[in-house]
Specification:
Layout: E1 12-19, H1 25-35, H2 41-53, H3 69-74, E2 81-86, E3 91-96, H4 104-111, E4 116-122, H5 129-140, E5 145-151, H6 160-174, E6 181-186, H7 210-216, E7 229-231, E8 234-236, E9 248-252, E10 263-267, E11 272-280, E12 283-284, E13 293-298, E14 309-311, E15 318-329, E16 340-345, E17 348-361, E18 368-369, E19 380-393, E20 404-408, E21 415-421
Parallel strand pairs: 1-3, 1-4, 4-5, 5-6
Antiparallel strand pairs: 2-3, 7-14, 8-9, 9-13, 10-11, 10-14, 11-12, 11-13, 15-19, 15-21, 16-17, 16-20, 17-18, 17-19, 20-21
Helix pairs in contact: 4-5
C-alpha cells in the first residue's frame, strides 16, 4: 500500500459552515484562522485598525472572512467564499455559506464536496428553522460528519443546562436524518472558548475542541473503495517523436481501486482489456483510488473518448436513460414540467426532458408535499428525467460522484439544479 503522504488529498478536510444570520460564522472562521496562526501580520493589523475605528473594544475577527466592503457595510455576507488554512496535522478548505434562507442554493454548492458540516446555533435562540434546513441538506448531500457548535455560550453564562437542552432538541430532529457521526461542542467564537483552546469556563464539557475534532475526524472510509469507477475526462495523444504511440486516459478516480494488470471494461462499448500503467503527477503509481487524478494506459487500443467510463467487468454501474432524482433548485426560473435541459454527469454531457415531478419536500417537517409540485428557487423535490444518451451511474447514497449531476438552462447556460440520483 502506498503511503498517504504521496496523496495529500487524504490529509485534506473540506468542511462547510452554516447557520442563521448573525450566528457568528464569520467570527468562528476568523477565530480558527487567528488561533491556529493562519493569518498574516498585515491582515491582523488591518482588522485591528478597523475594529478600533468602529469603537469596538476587541479585535473583530469576523472582518477576516467578510469579503467585499460594500456587503460588509450592509452587514451581510453573500455567495460561497472558500478559505484555506493548515495546521501541522491537516490542510483545510472551508466553504463559508450565507445564513439567509434565500441562499439555500449556496449551502448546496458549498456542501456538495464537503466531508464535514459545521452547523452553528445561537445559544440564546436554540434550534431554529435554518438549523434544521442546514442539517437536512447536509444529510441529503450524504455528508457523514456534522459538528453542532452551540455558539455565544458567553451570553448564557456558560450554563450546562442551556447546552444540554439544545443538544437534546437537535438529537430528536437528527434521528430522522442519515448522518452517522455527530459532535456537539459549546463554544464562544468571540472569546475563543473551545474553538482552538479548551475553555476553563466550561469545566462540565469533557469533549474535544473544534479544531481537535477537525484535525482528527476520520474521512478515509467516506470514499467508496468498492465500486471501481473512472470517468474519462481527456484522451492524451501527444503524437510526438518521443511518445509516438502513447495513448492515455486522464481523469479522476471516483470509486474503487485500480492497479496495473487489472482487467477493466470500457463503457459504453463493453470491450475489455487490462491496465498497462497508471501515471500520476509524481510519476508511476502502483494503485489509484479516490480522489486521485491519474492517467491510465491500457494494453489494447480500444475506442474510448471523453464521457466514457472505465470500470471492472464484475462490478458495473447502472446504465440508463430514465433517472429518478432528488433536486435542489438553484434558479429564479421555476422547474418546467416537460422542460428540456442540458445536463452534466461526471465527464459526460447530454440533454434531458423532465417527465414527472413526484413531490416536493417540506424541509422543516421532512414530509412530502404532494399537492403543490411547483419547484422554485431553494426548493427540494423528487423528479423523473429521460436523457438523450445513457448515463453510467450509481445511486447518490452509494457514490456521491457518480450519483450526482447538474441541470443547465440550454439558452442561458446557467446551472439551474443540483441533482442526486435515487
Amino acid at each position: 500500500m502506498t503511503t498517504n503522504s504521496q496523496y495529500p488529498s487524504m490529509d485534506l478536510l473540506r468542511f462547510t459552515t452554516a447557520g442563521s444570520v448573525d450566528d457568528g460564522k464569520s467570527t468562528l472562521i476568523g477565530r480558527l484562522l487567528y488561533d491556529s496562526k493562519s493569518i498574516f501580520e498585515d491582515q491582523l493589523e488591518a482588522i485591528e485598525e478597523v475594529s478600533q475605528r468602529r469603537g469596538k473594544g476587541y479585535v473583530d475577527l469576523s472582518l477576516l472572512t467578510d469579503g467585499l466592503r460594500a456587503e460588509r457595510e450592509q452587514g451581510i455576507t453573500i455567495d460561497v467564499a472558500y478559505r484555506y488554512f493548515a495546521t501541522p496535522k491537516r490542510k483545510f478548505i472551508i466553504a463559508d455559506t450565507p445564513g439567509h434562507i434565500q441562499y439555500t442554493r449556496n449551502m448546496v454548492t458549498g456542501a456538495s464536496t464537503a466531508n464535514l458540516a459545521i452547523v452553528l446555533v445561537d445559544a440564546r435562540h436554540g434550534v431554529v428553522e435554518q438549523t434544521r434546513r442546514h442539517a437536512f441538506i447536509a444529510s441529503l448531500l450524504q455528508i457523514k460528519h456534522l459538528v453542532l457548535c452551540v455558539n455565544k455560550m458567553d451570553l448564557v453564562e456558560y450554563k450546562q443546562e442551556v447546552f444540554n437542552q439544545i443538544r437534546g432538541e437537535f438529537e430528536i430532529f437528527a434521528s430522522k436524518l442519515s448522518i452517522p457521526d455527530i459532535h456537539y461542542i459549546p463554544i464562544s467564537a468571540l472569546n475563543g472558548d473551545n474553538v482552538v483552546d479548551r475553555s476553563a469556563k466550561t469545566p462540565w464539557y469533557e469533549g474535544s475542541t473544534l479544531l481537535y475534532t477537525l484535525e482528527n475526524v476520520h474521512i478515509g472510509s467516506d470514499y467508496n473503495m468498492v465500486d471501481s469507477r473512472f470517468p474519462v475526462q481527456w484522451v492524451i495523444r501527444p503524437q510526438s517523436d518521443q511518445y509516438h504511440d502513447f495513448r492515455g486516459y486522464a481523469g479522476r478516480v471516483e470509486g474503487g481501486i485500480f492497479k496495473p494488470g487489472d482487467e477493466v471494461l470500457a463503457l459504453p462499448s463493453g470491450f475489455t482489456t487490462t491496465i498497462k500503467s497508471i501515471e500520476s503527477i509524481n510519476g508511476p503509481v502502483d494503485e489509484a483510488f479516490p480522489p486521485m487524478s491519474v492517467v491510465i494506459t491500457l494494453k489494447d487500443e480500444i475506442d474510448i473518448s471523453r464521457g466514457d467510463m472505465i470500470v471492472k467487468p464484475n462490478n458495473q454501474p447502472e446504465v440508463g436513460q430514465d433517472i429518478e432524482l432528488m433536486v435542489c433548485w438553484l434558479h429564479e426560473k421555476k422547474l418546467q414540467p416537460n422542460g428540456k435541459y442540458a445536463l452534466k454527469h461526471t465527464t459526460k454531457e447530454a440533454r434531458c426532458i423532465v417527465k414527472d415531478i413526484r413531490y416536493k419536500i417540506n424541509i422543516n417537517t421532512l414530509h412530502r408535499v404532494e399537492d403543490d409540485r411547483t419547484i422554485g428557487m431553494n426548493d427540494i423535490g423528487r423528479i423523473l428525467i429521460r436523457t438523450t444518451a445513457p448515463l453510467f451511474y450509481d445511486s447518490y447514497s452509494r457514490n456521491r460522484f457518480t450519483g450526482s449531476l447538474i441541470l443547465i438552462d440550454e439558452f442561458t447556460n446557467e446551472t439551474v439544479a443540483a441533482g442526486m440520483i435515487i
